[in-house]
Amino acid sequence: MTVPTPIVDALPPMRVAERLGRLREQFDVAGIGALLVTTGANVRYLTGFSGSAGSLWVDGSRAVLLTDGRYRDQAPAQVASAGVDVEVVVTGAGQPSPLRTLSVHVAEVGLEAGSITWSEQRGLAQVLDSEAVFTEGLIEGLREVKDDGEVARIEAAAAVADAALAAVGPTIAAGAVEADVAAALDHAMRTGGAADRAFETIVAGGPNSALPHARPGPRPLAEGDLVVCDFGAVVDGYRSDMTRSRRVGGTGIGPEAEMLAAVLEAQAAGLAIVAAGVPAAEVDAACRAVLAEAGLADAFSHGTGHGVGLDIHEGPGLSSSATGSLRAGQVVTVEPGAYVAGLGGVRWEDTVLVTDDGHRPLTGSPKVL
Ligand code: ZN
Ligand code: ZN
């Protein structure tokens, strides 16, 4: 069971109860009379239930959370605490699946293609008294725009990560081992109130910094190394994401110093245009233009950003191929980087809330050159 921490108790409530209605509004367009929700984060979004085993049946009038005996107490408690109109049914081995009865009067049941395996789909075909229909992104689309309670949780997670870096940052020096710095960040986030780290913490120095998703290893940092620290915390299920780069011993001069400055300028250019109504691809283009000017076009080998929430990577994507425009209430990262083999890598990343006239940063650690 999720243990309420002082951080969570102080946060404003989320508006969970209205989400089922917004999902049902999409049923006609999707060509379904019901949806079987099997993606854990989507079940949590709609019901408040955070257990590892649960699927949610949603039809026009009922919502039924199916879980097993391990969650006999937790599931009803979390559903009640979220204030949602959801029945909880505890299923067990040898019992007939409640899905057959639930699906009797529904012609088409949507399955979430992103989380159903081929074998699960075949098993459900035996159980459901309906035609199974492919669906994709119905709930993920709703999740893109956050309510105030969700933003407060992401902001609280970001504050925990900021505090961890403030505590651990002074130890990022010559001789420090990547894996030890990563473990110290993780520990500081947990003792600072995080339920978990948001993803596997990246601390990458010297040659490893040239790998955008390097895993922290046994290499001690050396004077003059570029170091990339990418990490985040989880508070009440919601994540933060931030990257800070530095050079061991100070920025100094030379190509490393130029790269630190150029990527920071690229991030500033991207952040400057973040606002509701702006095409997501334009934010990517703004970052890319600065790096091209600095001769680092080819060194920026990933998209500029992504949505953050219950998942560390969710919609919207901020890349050159993104088709949509930003909306107020979305929480996104802006994280240009440059990676040069033999020299090292740099990334600056913040998590920000998109507003009508710009953005509000949720991560706040200083960005010093
Ligand atoms: Zn990150
Ligand atoms: Zn990120």
CATH top level of the largest domain? Alpha Beta
Instruction: Note poorly predicted spans.
Output: none
Shape: elongated
How many separate structural domains? 2
Radius of gyration over all CA atoms, rounded:
22 Å
CATH topology of the largest domain: Creatine Amidinohydrolase
The amount of helix comes to 25-40%
What is the correct CATH architecture of the largest domain?
Alpha-Beta Complex
Distance between the termini: 43 Å
Oligomer: single chain
Percent of residues in beta strands: 15-25%
| Secondary structure tally, helices | 12
| Sheet of most strands | 6 strands, mixed
Question: How many DSSP E strands?
Answer: 19
Average residue-wise pLDDT: 95
The ligands found in this model are: zinc ion
- What topology, given as strand order, has the largest sheet? 4-3-2-1-5-6
Q: Tell me the CATH superfamily of the largest domain.
A: Creatinase/methionine aminopeptidase superfamily
Helix/strand/pairing category: alpha+beta
Task: Give a description of the structure.
There is one protein chain. By secondary structure, the protein is α+β, with helices and mostly antiparallel strands. The protein has 2 domains: 6-143, Creatine Amidinohydrolase, Chain A, domain 1 (3-Layer(aba) Sandwich), CATH 3.40.350.10; 148-361, Creatinase/methionine aminopeptidase superfamily (Creatine Amidinohydrolase, Alpha-Beta Complex). Helices cover 33% and strands 23% of the residues. The chain is built from 12 helices and 19 strands. The strands form 6 sheets. Strands 4-3-2-1-5-6 form a 6-stranded mixed beta sheet, with helices on both faces. The two termini are 43 Å apart. The protein binds zinc ion (2 copies). The site of one zinc ion has 5 residues, from loops. One zinc ion binds next to loops.
